[in-house]
Amino acid sequence: MSRKQSRELAFKLLYQLAFNGGEVLNDESLKLVTDEKVDTVEMEYIRTLCNHVQTNKETIDAHIERLSSGFKLDRMFSVDITVLRLALAEILYMPTPNVVVVDTCLTIAKKYSTDKSSGFVNGILATFLKEQDGK
């Protein structure tokens, strides 16, 4: 399983969590989102990424709302929120090149959300990264 596929699997697990609550990673939740065998290294990566999203959700959501030009989270598509949470968690808390994170998250937004979602997600992430570069 590639790292890109692992990010997509983390997205699916986080999206599922948004609706069902409970644990992110257990055998049952994993079976609902993939038939693939996930190796130990990738499982640890997925678990770490999902944990960063859950642990830092308030901080991440505050960034999303601040950068979304007055849109509250309850007015955004849940897929877009999940993609943004995933991207910001990885950018903020994991040693991954930002361009890789953004590229993968835009692909996920295009695949699972509306035609305009990738532009929205890209705008939020580009603004966030510009702010980070200025610090």
Describe the protein's architecture and organization.
The protein is an all-alpha fold and about 140 residues long. The chain has a single domain (about 5-135), classed as N-utilizing Substance Protein B Homolog, Chain A, CATH 1.10.940. Helices cover about 75% and strands about 0% of the residues. The chain contains 7 helices and no strands. Helix 1 (about 5-20) packs across helix 3 and helix 5 runs parallel beside helix 7. The longest helix is centred in the N-terminal third of the chain and has 18 residues, at about 5-20. It is globular, with a radius of gyration of 14 Å. The model has no long low-confidence stretch (mean pLDDT about 90).
Outline of the structure:
The chain has helices at 3-20, 27-33, 40-55, 57-67, 78-93, 98-112, 117-134. With 135 residues, the chain is mainly alpha-helical.
